[in-house]
Amino acid sequence: MTRPASPPLLAELRDPSSISAQVAALRALKNEIIGHEQRKESWINLGVVPPVVRILTSARARGKAASSRDGNGMSRDGQGIVHDSFGDAQDEARLQATIVVGSLAQGGPAFVAPLLSAGVIPPLLATLAPGEASPQLLLATLRALDSIAQSLPSDYPGVGLSDASLPSLLCGRRNAENIAAILSQTSSASIIQEQIALTASIIAKSCREDRHRAALARHHVLDALAARLASFIVATGFILSTAEPSADRPHATEAIPPPAPSRAQLAPILEAIAVIIQHSKYRTLQLLFSPAMVAVFPPSSLDPVAKAAWGFALTPRTAHLNPIDQLLPQLPGYYSKSSSPQSAAFPPLGSSRFSRTSSATNLASELGSSNERALAEDIDSPLVAWLVHVARAEGGRIRVMAAWVLSILCRSGFAHKRREASLALLIVPLLVRILKDECDKLDVTQSPDACDGWAVIERAPLVLALLVMDSPDLQKAADDADAIKVLAQLLKKTFEAVPSSTRPAYWSANPTETQYASSSVEALSSNNLGPAGVSPMVTHLMRCRAGALSALAAISPFKDEYRKKIIDNGVVPYIIDSLKPLEPGAAGVSDGISTTSAGNPPSVLLAACSAARALSRSVSVLRTSLIDNGIATPLFSLLRHHNIEVQISATAVICNLVIEFSPMRETILDAGVLHILCQQAHSPSAKLRLNAVWALKHLVFSAPNDVKMSCVRELGPSWLIQLITEETDDFGNYGEEFRPSTPRTPLGMGSSNAAGEQVDLLNSTEPERPCAGDEYEGDLTMTDSIGSLSRSSRPDVSLETNGANSSSRLGTAPSTTENIKARLAVIKDDELDPVQQARRDDIAVQEQGLDLIRNLICGPGAPEMIDFLFSTLGQDQMFHIFESKLRPRVVDGDNQRADRTGARAQRAASAGTTTTYPQYRIGNIAVSASSSSSSPSFSQPPQNANQNQTSGKSIPPTPEIILAVCFVLVHIAAGQPRHRQILISQSDLMSELVPLFNHPNRHIRAACAWIVINLTWVDDTSDQMNGRARALELKNLGIESRLRGMESDPELDVRERVKTALAQLGSLLR
Asked: Which segments show compositional bias classed as Low complexity (predicted)?
């Protein structure tokens, strides 16, 4: 059947006789298609999209109309009365065309595809200027963009639409500034408040990449959202008394925003803020230090005078709280051993005086770097308590979004450690109750028209996972609230059969002639519907599935008790099914996905891998449930998945499946996992390389020598040498692409538990691509309206760093705008500097590479493997590498990059965040880590550029690398007598070991004692003479005197090893 002739209405749109006739045609088209998908499809097939988009592109508001509007986009008369005038006819044409676009976009991905093909995004974004478009036109534009953002992108890569023009263009400089202007409108009119809510919604739906979030923060969108949030705080009357003008802050009230009107919506603002600040400590600090937030919640509100003004009773138990906590329920004594304020006075038996730290210090030690630890004393903004109050007082979406922002603040380290007690009693049960209520209402036959409430159940499990992650107390609170049972019920519901179509299928006499299987916008036509994409209900269920799996993984990483409950609830088969990816050639995929049985998107695969990794940390689970349900087969296929993040997560699970006691080790090895892991170890992705080497380390432990030799040959000897030697020059240029900030868990290098399981992983980073129309601003830009943030002085706290008992003075609290800027600059460098990120990646991979060598030379066949490595890698080359790893690295500063790093060090010094090692008392000897040749101080920046260029800069070796090298030497010394003779003959290497006997890290001191124990071990009488020679050499090096000074070491393990080493030395030297 041929298509009917073009109707007169379409001809008028293509070639209008007049503006008024064109407006009339647009009105008629709007009235015909609204709420009728069959007519929308017919008009698209007739070619209505290109002329409608052309109208948006060609028509522009007249300058006269724009100049008659105020900063809020409202047209007013002489008396200031708001009028709903549309302006001239061109504005009316644009308005009607925008409404048509919005109506078409509500049809879903199939209807959005022809709009994108016609280039609808740029003309829509060009309207986002409150002073140049009428309020009605701006509102219609935002509604259309929101409908388009709802369909982009698909959770299934390659299915549906893959266009990224909206977020990329949205985060450009001009458009981002327009977004900030919309958010900054102060009118209480309902149309303005709807504009603000829609803008926040578009941000939340569009910004899924870190470069987009960073661009919005850079262009002051985050500041505008913070001002909107502060207006809600003002409206609820929670502004603190210290925000009033004072002698030192005479303009304190100028930054305080007006109270939010009653029509304002809080949930979209909280959601947009959470989307922008997630995975970034720097952006979280930008939120806390934004002018509006500082004006409403100044740091001085924690002073005793301010607390007394609120009637706040100061006790040891409430010293860390702020006045808003008075509005929260009085809690019973729910304090764990780790969070109780009394526990500092009564530490567990056996703890030394060096390990007694305040809770603020404990939180500081959990932050990722020394620069971030310097901000630990600025934690627990009153915003945390206010969010707890909002989460309890409000309901529905507001409650979940408030808990989301709260969880991000806690996860980033900006909530006091002792606050876990209130979170365990006030927030965790609340989230579980929301999950239970929403899970009971979940119905797979529900119409997509009721999807407005889906965000609550989609987000709540992810918020719970973020909140309880790495916190045993909060995990216990979740278990007490029956979270595992509720999450298991939710996970099972996501596997229920979905009806074939959740929308009525309309009969059409003119079906689409061409069905496009490709999801690329370039391959689509503006005159045909695009691919159907993923059913809204399937998308909803997959997001719920990913959230449930993530929450189960976050609850169960530490205790077998929780893992057993997960198994008892019958969850394991569903976890295994969640590991099955969507097959590219699956039936019906090209036309869209309307069933949950087609496979899982990457988001579900990642969450399922996390859950499997948490369960695989249990020996009993490995031997029963995981084997019985066949986890190896789907997991093995994920090692070759096209998504690199899925490969990384699957490799992380393999780390736990190939450990020595795993019953699946031989099965996985026979399936060829060694070859795959060796291939992944050569990956350009640092995180995949790290996980692969980590898995190989576990695989070769106690394995037969033929497997170990195959591993070395498969990796390649030259590559193994390169793996443990290659380092990123701190003053060099690491690539040309800028890397964005990513969530970086503090990596305890080599943080494996007693069973050898992988505990922590380094998060990967992707090169940042600039947003369209945007240029990266390398310098930190901060407004000067922050004001004076004076704070009372605080006592010094002790800090344990890198596992060593130490005390370090944190920087002083910021009292000026310059200090705040300096601290933000330090955090920014830590998070965004690609050189620092590359060096952290190098250290992590090198440590695992050294541990791999250690595991290759341990076990029954160790002597044979030591000889094999000496011959394969080169004996002299290996010892030279080990020696270089123990020496400080001197970097030549004869370039401008050294000056840049010196400036960065100067900023760190001005922020009070030096990196000088503190003094430690080991036995009767006071040792400064900066005084030893192995750990020089680098706290002072170069005095001038010339000095820096001539002397260079000394970078001390990291404790993780030192410890890894020491344990390799321990195992070499544990070989045959000839291996001990070879090691003691390495005079330069042994000289580098001497200062390490007084290293602040107790594990390194113990490892040094083990080296002496193994070197002084005598197998039989034939080795007696050589053993005495080795003992004399150790004495001549000064190691015996070092051991004498360690006899009163504060650590019991070190003292016992030293006692054994001295006894063996003494017996040989008699």
From this structure: 931-951
Q: What amino acid occupies position 207?
A: C
| Domain shared by 862 and 968, yes or no | no
| Within a domain: 958 | yes
End-to-end CA, the chain = 108
pLDDT tens, 941-977?
A: 333 434 444 455 778 899 999 999 999 999 999 999 9
Cα dihedral angle (1028, 1034, 1035, 1040), rounded to 10 degrees?
A: -110
What CATH code is carried by the domain that includes residue 1? 1.25.10.10
Distance (Å, whole) CA 564 – CA 577: 19
Residues 138 and 36 in one domain: yes
What mean pLDDT is predicted for residues 263-286? 94
Q: Is 3 helix (H, G, I), strand (E, B) or coil?
A: coil
Question: What's the structural domain count of the chain?
Answer: 3
Query: What does the mean pLDDT of the chain come to?
Result: 76
Q: Which long-range contacts (CB under 8 A, 24 or more apart) does 747-752 make?
A: 747/840, 747/844, 749/843, 749/844, 749/847, 749/958, 749/960, 750/847, 750/848, 750/851, 750/960, 750/963, 750/964
Name the token pair of 794: 């605080």
**Host domain of residue 141:** 1-58+87-153
Q: What angle do CA 492, 493, 497 make, to 5 degrees?
A: 110
* Average pLDDT value for residue range 174-191: 94
Q: What is the pLDDT of residues 442-494, one digit of tens each?
A: 888 776 666 667 889 999 999 999 999 999 999 999 999 999 999 999 999 99
- In this structure, are residues 795 and 361 in contact, taking their beta carbons and an 8 Å threshold? no
Between CA 901 and CA 66 the distance in angstroms is: 48
* Residue from 617, 620, 494 nearest 568 by CA: 620
Q: Which of 325-329, 835-839, 875-879, 981-985 has the lowest mean pLDDT?
A: 325-329
Higher per-residue confidence, 573 vs 159: 573
* Alpha-carbon distance values, 358 to 339, 365, 542, 917 (Å): 10, 11, 43, 20
SS3 labels along 470-494: CCHHHHHHHHHCCHHHHHHHHHHHC
**Range among 36-45, 54-63, 176-185, 1019-1028 with highest mean pLDDT value:** 176-185
pTM to 2 decimal places:
0.80
246 vs 91, residue with greater confidence: 91
Judge if 696 and 839 occupy the same domain. Answer: yes
Question: How far is residue 928's CA from residue 74's CA, in Å, rounded to a whole number?
Answer: 67
At 600, is the secondary structure helix, strand, or coil? strand
Of the ranges 444-458, 481-495, 589-603, 788-802, which one carries the lowest mean pLDDT score? 788-802
Of the candidate ranges 72-86, 254-268, 835-849, the one whose mean pLDDT is the lowest: 72-86
Task: Give the containing element (helix H, strand E) for 1016.
Answer: none
Pairing of strands 889-891, 953-955: antiparallel
pLDDT at position 343 is: 40
- Give the bridge partners for 955, in sequence order: 889
Give the helix ranges, DSSP H, for 630-774: 632-638, 644-657, 665-670, 673-680, 686-700, 705-715, 717-725
CA distances 748 to 369, 760, 844, Å, are: 11, 7, 9
Coil, helix or strand for 288?
helix
Q: Which residue has the tokens 């698909």?
A: 154
CA atoms within 13 A on the CB side of 73: 28
Could you say which of 127, 153, 179 is where a domain stops? 153
Most confident option among 330-344, 478-492, 813-827, 937-951:
478-492
Confidence of residue 26 (pLDDT cuts 50, 70, 90): very high
**Containing H/E element for 926?**
strand 925-928
> Which residues make beta-bridge pairs with 926?
921
What b-and-e string marks burial along 929-950, b requiring 16 or more CB atoms within 10 Å of the CB?
bbebebbbebeebbeeeeebbe
Angle of helix 959-973 relative to helix 862-869, nearest 10 degrees?
Answer: 120
- Residues 6 or more apart whose CB falls under 8 angstroms from that of 102 comprise 140, 143, 144, 147
